[in-house]
Amino acid sequence: MFFDKFGIARNVRQSLCSGITVAFLALLTVLFLSCPALATEKADSGAFSLIFENDHFNNTDRHYSNGINFGWIPADSTSQEWVLALSRHIPLFPEDGAIHHGYSFGQSTFTPGDITRNNPPIDDRPYAGWLYGSIHLESGTEQQLDQLVLTLGVVGPASLAELGQKTLHKARAVNKPRGWDKQIEDEPGIVITYQRSWRALTSRFMDLTPHAGAALGNIFTYANSGLTLRTGRNLPPDYGPPRIQPGIPGAMSFAAPQDFSWYLFAGVEGRAVARNIFLDGNTFRDSRSVDKEVLVGDLQFGTVLTWQKVRLSYTHVLRSREFKSQRQRNGFGAIALTVAY
Description:
Elements: H1 2-5, H2 8-34, E1 47-54, E2 63-73, H3 81-88, E3 98-111, E4 128-140, E5 144-155, H4 161-172, E6 187-198, E7 206-217, E8 220-233, E9 261-276, H5 277-280, E10 295-307, E11 310-319, E12 330-340
Antiparallel strand pairs: 1-2, 1-12, 2-3, 3-4, 4-5, 5-6, 6-7, 7-8, 8-9, 9-10, 10-11, 11-12
C-alpha cells in the first residue's frame, strides 16, 4: 500500500508489462524469420491481407469491441521438399492439394457492456486484450480446403489493448474507457486450430460451402461447424474472405479472376465452447470471470468485390449470447482487404 501511494507498484507493473510485450514480439520475430520459405509445388503469387473488425459497424460499443489482423502469404518460387513431406503426413490434408503457408499478427479487444464505469459489474464481461501471431499451413483444391494454424500470444496488460482502445476513442472523441485496471491478468497463450471446408453444389453462379473444425488451447477450446452460401457474377473458386477467429473461416489466398467479379454470401456457424479465457478468466490465477454459454452461434452476411489482384469484402456478424448474464446479443462488422502480388 505504501508503494502504491507513490505510484511505485504501478510503475513496476507497467515495466513488467512492457518487458513481456517486447519479449513476446521478439520471440515471434525470431520464430517467423527463422522459418524457411514454405513453398508451394509450383510458382505462386503471394498476398497481403488486412482485417478490421469493430462493433461500431453495429452501432454498439461492448463485448467484442475491436480486432485487427495483418496477414502475409509469401510469393513462393522454389520447392522445400521437407515442407511438402510434412504436409503430406498431416492425416486430414488432401494428397493432391496445393500447399500454402502464411503468417499473421493481430490484436483483439474485449470490454464490458458499459465502458464508462470505473468498476464494471462483476457479472459483466471483463476487460481483456489478446496480442498474437500465427503461422498458417493450408492444403487446397477447388473442392476442399484444409487449414492448420498455430497461434502464440499474450493476454492481459501486455497485450496493449488498453492503450489501443483509449487511443482510438480519443481520436474519435467518444467516451473514454474506464475500468481497465479490472482487466484479465497477463498470461501467455497458445491455440492450435484446424478447419476443413468443402465447396458443394457448385455452379457458375452459386455454391454451398460446409465447414467443420476445432480449436485447442488455453485461450480457446471449442468444436465448430457450419456452412456458407455464395451467389454472384464470375464466382471465383475460393473459400471467402478471411476472418479473425473464432468465426466462420475464409482464406487469405484467393483466385484472381480475369474480369471484375462480385458475390453476396450468408453463413451460419455453431460452436460448442469448452474454454474461452476472455470469459473464464485466467488459467492459473484469480481474475474476473463470468459463466459462459457452452453453445454459441454466429450468423453472418456480406459482399465481396474482386478486380484483378485486389479483393475487398464487408461482413456483418450477429453473435448469440456468450455468457449467461449477458443482456444483449453481440454484433460487429468486418472489412477485409487482400492484395495479391
